[in-house]
Amino acid sequence: MVKSILILFLFSILLFSCEKDDERLMISGEITNLVNPYFLASFRVSDSVAVDTIHVDEKGKFSYFQNIDTTTMFTFYFNDFHSSTVVFTEKGVKKIKLKGDAILPDLIEIKGGEINDNLSVFKKENEAILKQRSLLLAQTNDEADSSIKTINIISEKEQLALMNSLNHELAQKVEDFIIEHPDKISSVILINEFFKNNENPKTFDRVLGYLKGDALNFPLTSKLQKYNEKLMLSSEGADMPYFQLTDVNDKTVRSNDFRDKYLLISFLSSNGEKSKENLEILKDEYHQLDKKNIEFLSIYIDSDTFPIVYHEIDSIPWKIVTADKSWGSDIVDAYNVHYVPFNILIDPKGKIVSRDIPVGDVRNLINSENDKSNL
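Above: the chain's sequence. Below: its structure in token form.
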């Protein structure tokens, strides 16, 4: 009798455990070309971000369990953050499967739930563009494995031109998808991925305007709308955001100090080769421009140490500022700068004329603006 009761008790515990496990979300799959026997997963829990380490076997297979039963965004980071992919959970979905290559994260197939399934359809329909784009990024980062067939080695200038062309074509494909699926949350996800950092907030605003129904009411949509409103404040044609800074000579620099002149603000890094090249061209342009019509201001964004000693500062004839909070500085946020070098031209009326302008085009652009004002 006692033995029977014990067996029944153990069976009940086992049954309860199985039922409890069945309620958990399982994300499993196989990711190839991992350089480590693990990858990282991050997701938001209330007001904090949780980070987990997911171990894989020798074939890249894994199983990951979480007690989540609502729409949650997981970001999986591969190969020491060189690539990543996003996985969405939805209420009622208990199994999600991944399959793909860590070097080609845009092509990782994710099945399970409407959002993941829709995004996988988009990836499949645009596989050729996404693959070429991923391989180009891998080549740029010198990450491509010998087992991956890359595109022909091309110059940095050709890489940039090709990347711009691919991004433009892909953006059109995304816009077409959104127009066709304006009520799908997957459309919001694609806007966040492909249009959030677009240099033209009017394009961002246009694609947001397509959304309706569930997509319009999705929490991320509200965040994107607010972010776009912020971008408008530093877009081309907007009044330059006010700033008050302290230069390397401990003097105050204000935005209204540059009234009635063109102002070229250059965001640079003391360590980057591209920033150094940009600086040399800036010097050449500065000496050839009429100082009565234009002033330069360079803002160094560095994250290593502060204060920073710049050996080249003595040779720079214009005002220099070091961003005391690096990428967290107010002026970086106000002017929506995401990379360096980055040049912004402002006209004598304080209007932003051009963002991310090549320094070699400054003189021609100023002459063009002056010709317009004289008409």
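The chain has eleven helices and 15 strands.
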